[in-house]
Design goal:
The protein is 23% helix and 35% strand. By secondary structure, it is an alpha+beta fold. It is elongated, with a radius of gyration of 35 Å.
Length: 439
């Protein structure tokens, strides 16, 4: 019996030894732990040195990005502009490409990792015509990383899956979908024709102005919003509608808006038409007709009053230096020195002056008028910006409300009676600063 037990124990030991050997053998395959866990920078390519990126996929698709001065193009029979943000993201991913770990220090074959025929092959060329090749293979068993290698390096690495996603792009992913590829910081003028009206904007040194149909102050936030909407007019490439159908829909559509944008490179024009509930656009900067989002279309549906500045004063949130109010027989003269306000040599209570400044700052039109201004019953003059800006507003009674007019400007602003009543009250509440407490 002892002999039989010894024989059984020997057999179990032999089986256990085999299991351990097989386990150790599997540990060096792609299914198990890496040789080391330290990260390795795979490429030494600064973003501004990269000139050419070729993306080859296992599916057979090839995309080539080429730098043309400061812009990137997608090479082809008809080169396409590349999306600056998409290319910038890819350049950042390339220049900062770091492995999560080293899987094998000296791979005898790339086949087990899917690198012999990689899912993605990146061929990168710098300004000195030097090239680097990055191979991205199969997913690791856990599915959180992919195998990768650099041509000429015998090591196999693991990259986080999201890094692969930085390069797994289609032509549509990388294409600049903007229909008006202007430089927003260098736009000098915009002309919008919508609602049977043409409005032209000019950018001055300090701000936007309406120059057509008449010279008016522009609401800067509204013009900047228009500029953002135009910058975001993009091709909708998600649908199945082909070019011929889009062109036919455009031709059959109703003219909705036409925009011209001028920057340092010239003038670009966009025509937008509405067909049922859909919007189609044709750009002078991009060949073809494209469907655009309905939100973009409705964003152009604005008239003159939407862009006019309704505020009576431009000093904004800056603290003015002087305020002068003539209200019939009542006159108020306020000057600021540092943080203190004075009136005819008397230091004024800061809280009451601040309340008055707020009421003057908030004076805004409820609507615009063409006629009706009579004799002024209230004049307000504000000096700000170190004395460089002097704004004078004359206010007259007009029925139950009031009309205001800025000096040397044709626009008439209708004010609610409540705004003037509050201004009267706040001015009447001005008082001297309390006397210093004697110790």
């Amino acid at each position: 019996m002892k002999s039989k037990g010894l024989l059984t124990a020997s057999f179990l030991l032999l089986v256990l030894s085999g299991v351990i050997w097989w386990s150790n053998k599997k540990a060096v395959t792609p299914d198990k732990a890496p040789v080391e866990t330290t990260t390795v920078k795979l490429l030494n390519l600064p973003e501004d040195q990269i000139q050419d990126i070729e993306i080859k996929k296992r599916t057979g698709e090839t995309i080539q990005l080429k730098r043309n001065d400061s812009k990137w193009l997608i090479a082809g029979a008809e080169p396409l502009r590349a999306d600056p943000d998409a290319v910038s993201s890819m350049l950042s991913a390339i220049s900062s490409l770091i492995s999560d770990r080293t899987v094998e220090e000296k791979a005898s074959s790339l086949e087990p990792y899917g690198l012999a025929q990689p899912a993605i092959e990146l061929n990168i060329t710098d300004k000195n015509k030097k090239t680097a090749k990055v191979l991205i293979g199969d997913d690791t068993p856990a599915g959180t990383a992919v195998y990768a290698a650099i041509a000429g390096d015998v090591r196999v690495f693991a990259l986080a899956s999201y890094k692969k996603n930085s390069f797994d792009k289609s032509t549509n992913d990388l294409r600049d979908k903007r229909l008006l590829p202007f430089d927003a910081d260098k736009v000098s003028s915009i002309e919008l024709t919508a609602k049977k009206q043409t409005i032209a904007f000019g950018r001055g040194k300090d701000d936007w102005q309406i120059v057509k149909p008449k010279p008016f102050r522009a609401d800067r936030s509204q013009v900047e919003e228009l500029l953002r909407a135009l910058r975001d007019v993009k091709m909708d490439l998600r649908g199945s509608e082909d070019e011929k159908k889009a062109a036919a829909a455009f031709e059959a559509g109703t003219p909705f808006a036409t925009v011209q944008v001028t920057d340092v490179s010239g003038t670009q024009e966009l025509q937008v038409r509405k067909n049922n509930d859909d919007y189609y656009a044709k750009s002078s900067a991009v060949a073809g007709v494209y469907k655009i989002s309905s939100g973009t279309g409705t964003g152009l549906d604005k008239g003159l009053d939407d862009f006019r500045n309704k505020k009576l004063f431009d000093f904004g949130f800056a603290e003015p230096e002087k305020i002068e109010i003539h209200d019939g027989s009542k006159n108020y003269f306020l000057t600021r020195s540092g943080s203190d306000w004075w009136s005819n040599g008397t230091k004024m209570d800061a809280g009451t002056v601040s309340a008055l400044v707020d009421k003057v700052r908030d004076l805004s039109a409820s609507k615009f008028m063409e006629i009706g201004f009579a004799a002024s019953v209230l004049d307000v003059t504000v000096t700000s910006d170190g004395g460089k800006r002097v704004e004078k507003v004359m206010i007259s009674k007009n029925g139950d409300n009031y009309l205001a007019k800025r000096e040397n400007e044709p626009a008439l602003y209708e004010l609610n009676a409540s705004a003037i009543s509050e201004l009267h009250k706040t001015a009447a509440d001005l008082k001297p600063a309390p006397s210093p407490t004697k110790k």
